[in-house]
Write a structure and sequence with these properties.
Layout lengths: L1 E2 L13 H15 L5 E3 L14 H15 L5 E2 L15 H6 L10 H8 L21
Parallel strand pairs: 2-3
Antiparallel strand pairs: 1-2
Length: about 140
């Protein structure tokens, strides 16, 4: 999703993650603001195909598509796929963990960091789903 990251109020990525990026992108298109950045929205790999290296290939394809469109900045608001297994661990602690190799320990975060990405911040209000731990 292309959007203009240079407009006032967009110096940092938003707490609302890609939910806010979508609003920005549509607003930019409506008002004729040229995009300066592109954001990934989602990559999903069917569980039947996990462990075959598809996540790396999907990220490479995404990066190539962004580059072909003339973008040199690609943001990927990542939803940590294994976070639900550690409900009582804060997101800050979860994303801060590194293995002995220096890479993130969360599987989907790890993939992004291994291909050159970096964790910039937590989008605390992105894709929120409210409920109790029991739910």
């Amino acid at each position: 999703m292309p959007f203009n990251a240079d407009l006032d109020g967009r110096e940092e990525m938003p707490d609302k993650g890609w939910d806010q990026v979508l609003v920005w992108a549509f607003r930019d298109q409506r008002h004729g603001h040229a995009p300066t950045t592109v954001s990934a929205l989602e990559i999903t790999v069917d569980t039947e195909y996990l462990g075959r290296g598809l996540s790396y290939r999907m990220l490479a394809a995404l990066r190539d598509a962004a580059s072909r469109q003339g973008h040199n900045v690609l943001l990927a608001p990542v939803r940590p796929t294994a976070k639900h297994l550690e409900q009582r661990v804060t997101m800050t602690d979860y994303v801060s963990r590194q293995g002995d190799d220096g890479f993130a320990t969360g599987p989907w975060l790890r993939v992004h960091v291994k291909v050159g990405g970096s964790i910039q911040r937590i989008a605390s209000a992105s894709m929120t789903v409210s409920g109790s731990l029991a739910q």
